[in-house]
């Protein structure tokens, strides 16, 4: 299945994409993760992207598209993928359609995960990420056993710069202006399904599978519990 998970930052796209990977047998392709890896590596692309990311702005379409193109060319994405955080602009959506057309493919579904702004601010500002393994916790909804330490590897938990309140509000404004117009784009192509993304990760997962026409029985109970606060 070729799927796009789409919605505001903090809607839980990452959590759901990771749960769906096993269920659909298709890899998660998260542009935020690809960009953060480039920043960690200190590549030229990473250096260019870093500033935009820290300010809650979008990284240039060409940079992001090139990363996605390279990632989707890998063999594990040949028969399906779950795009998480891409496309985020109409230009990116058009470039994706063109690229898929060249491969003789098309998207099967675009799922919009709906959450209101105040819920998002609560979710993201409480999010803490492990510096070592990337696991995600939440100070209220999913606290680590030992404050400031990762349950999985003992690594130090930190707040991503773009998870600070002021930056989250900027990211929401950017979402409204640049990304929301994609709703109409995908309504027109008949691909859009809208899902209420408030509730436990398992509940939201069942709603998404329902929207995809899949039987939800195969999602193990509790799967994704450690990443409840994921974006
Ligand atoms: P995320 O982890 O998806 O919330 O992404 C973190 C940041 O990476 C965003 O706030 C943007 O700065 C950048 N980013 C991720 N995906 C894209 C994209 N498709 N287009 C432009 N910038 C992106």
Return the structural class: alpha/beta
Largest sheet: 5 strands, parallel
Bound molecules: adenosine monophosphate
Helix content percent band: 40-55%
Put simply, the count of helices is 9
Model regions low in confidence, pLDDT < 50 over at least 5 residues? 218-231
* CATH structural architecture of the domain at 2-113 and 165-211: 3-Layer(aba) Sandwich
Oligomeric status of the shown chains? single chain
How widely separated are the two ends? 22 Å
Output the helix-strand order: EHEHHHEHEHEEEHHEH
Strand content: 5-15%
Shape: globular
Please tell me how large the radius of gyration is: 17 Å
Total E-strand runs: 8
CATH H level of the domain at 2-113 and 165-211: which superfamily?
P-loop containing nucleotide triphosphate hydrolases
Determine the CATH topology of the domain at 2-113 and 165-211.
Rossmann fold
Tell me the name of the CATH class of the domain at 2-113 and 165-211.
Alpha Beta
Average pLDDT, all residues: 90
Q: Strand order within the widest sheet?
A: 2-3-1-4-8
Tell me briefly what this model is:
It contains nine helices and eight strands. It is α/β, with parallel strands linked by helices. The strands form two sheets. It has a five-stranded parallel sheet with strand order 2-3-1-4-8, with helices on both faces. It has a three-stranded antiparallel sheet with strand order 6-5-7.
């Amino acid at each position: 299945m070729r799927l796009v998970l789409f919605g505001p930052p903090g809607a839980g796209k990452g959590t759901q994409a990771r749960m769906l990977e096993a269920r659909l047998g298709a890899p998660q392709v998260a542009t935020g993760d690809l960009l953060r890896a480039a920043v960690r590596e200190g590549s030229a692309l990473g250096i260019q992207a870093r500033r935009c990311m820290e300010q809650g702005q979008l990284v240039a379409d060409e940079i992001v598209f090139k990363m996605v193109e390279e990632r989707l060319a890998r063999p594990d994405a040949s028969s399906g993928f779950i795009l998480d955080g891409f496309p985020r602009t109409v230009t990116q959506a058009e470039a994706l359609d063109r690229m898929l057309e060249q491969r003789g493919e098309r998207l099967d579904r675009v799922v919009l995960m709906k959450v209101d702004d105040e819920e998002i601010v609560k979710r993201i500002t409480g999010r803490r990420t492990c510096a070592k393994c990337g696991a995600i916790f939440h100070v209220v909804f999913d606290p680590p056993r030992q404050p400031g330490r990762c349950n999985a590897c003992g690594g130090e938990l930190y707040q991503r710069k773009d998870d600070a309140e002021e930056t989250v509000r900027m990211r929401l404004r950017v979402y409204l202006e640049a990304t929301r117009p994609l709703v109409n784009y995908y309504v027109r192509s008949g691909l859009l399904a809208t899902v209420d993304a408030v509730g436990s990760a398992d509940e939201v997962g069942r709603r998404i599978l329902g929207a995809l026409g899949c039987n939800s029985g195969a999602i193990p109970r509790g799967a994704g519990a450690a990443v409840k606060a994921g974006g």
